[in-house]
Write a structure and sequence with these properties.
alpha+beta, Arc Repressor Mutant, subunit A, BirA Bifunctional Protein, domain 2, SH3 type barrels, 9 helices, 14 strands, 29% helix, elongated
Length: 329
């Protein structure tokens, strides 16, 4: 009922909406209307009470529920079903549980806070309440399971494009799917899949973006390698406009990819956003650490490294961490 009252207020388009009229249309008492107005105010909505006129919505909080995101969404199916959570251990963990049952393609799980946020290779991800975008896109693409890792390329390019167009941030991609600016990490992507034989049950793509976090929000472990849009730009950013932009960019690229599970059509764009191509880098895994020059990204999404002896080696994203010779990148 609270959401229906919010819809009534938004329909007023800045004009007062009579409490009596809302009471009649919604079939509840005026006291109930007043109580739900109080709940909306507690959630951060600015609502003026005007004698003999009713209630007027004068401001909305920066939350990413469907009612707040919908005016900004321009997608056909990505994000048309949104599960909004105030706090959760991890949007990926939640999405995997939901994906065990039939779900709507393009469902998005968004949380205002993650208490156990995760990145690649089991790393923790700082997910401060109300200051970032912590979301997971749920998909069931008609592709072979072996092609699913390429979706990390899709997501990384979408996030980089959205950050550039929406926030004017010089976002670059640290292969395969970290987004960096000024040599520090701004966003991370975690793609996970469940499949049987040649059929994908689901793919979930977790996206974390440090939006309005300040330096004190990062712990000592990551403060020297992480940044946020607010730190880089010096001003706060409306999270819901950026989230909507990411979902739109993702849908555009995903529709191209799903036709033939090929990244060829947008690989040049991805390379153009690369933060590693042409650089000397370190490749780190459990068994070894090698250095080489990043010279290309293949149509399979593999990083091509030129070693000291002149030979080239293709590296899969699940195998290694990539670092610059003197720092994060």
């Amino acid at each position: 009922m609270k959401n229906k009252i919010l819809e009534e207020l938004k329909a007023g388009k800045g004009q007062p909406v009579s409490g009596e009229e809302m009471s009649k249309r919604l079939g509840i008492s005026r006291t109930a209307v007043w109580k739900h107005i109080g709940k909306l105010r507690n959630e951060g909505y600015s609502i003026e009470s005007q004698t003999n006129s009713g209630y007027k919505l004068t401001g909305s909080p920066d939350v990413m529920s469907l009612s707040e995101l919908e005016p900004f969404l321009k997608t056909e199916f990505i994000g048309k079903n949104i599960i909004y959570l105030d706090s959760i251990d991890s949007t990926n963990i939640y999405a995997k549980k939901k994906a065990e049952d039939p779900f709507r393609e393009g469902t998005v799980v968004i949380a205002d806070e993650q208490t156990v946020g995760r990145g690649r290779l089991g790393r923790n991800w700082v997910s401060t309440k109300g200051k970032g975008i912590w979301m997971t896109i749920m998909l069931k693409p008609d592709i072979q399971p072996s092609d699913a890792p390429k979706l990390s390329i899709v997501a990384a390019l979408a996030v980089a494009n959205a950050l550039r167009s929406c926030c004017r941030v010089n976002a670059r991609i640290k292969w395969p799917n970290d987004i960096v600016t000024g040599g520090k990490k701004l966003s991370g992507i975690l793609t996970e899949m469940s499949a049987e034989a040649d059929e994908i049950k689901y793919v979930i793509i977790g996206i974390g973006i440090n939006v309005n976090m300040e330096a004190d929000d990062f712990g000592q472990e990551v403060s020297n390698i992480a940044t946020s849009i607010r730190i880089e730009k010096g001003i706060p950013v409306l999270r819901k406009t950026l989230a909507a932009s990411v979902l739109l960019e993702f849908e555009k690229i995903y529709k191209v990819f799903e036709k033939d599970a090929c990244i060829k059509d947008f690989l040049d764009d991805y390379k153009g956003r690369s933060a590693v191509l042409g650089k000397e880098i370190r490749l780190i895994n459990k068994k070894e650490e090698i250095t080489g020059r990043a010279v290309d990204i293949s149509e399979e999404g593999h990083l091509v490294i030129e070693l000291a002896d002149g030979s080239c080696r293709e590296v899969m994203s699940g195998e290694v961490s990539v670092r610059g010779l003197k720092g994060y990148i």
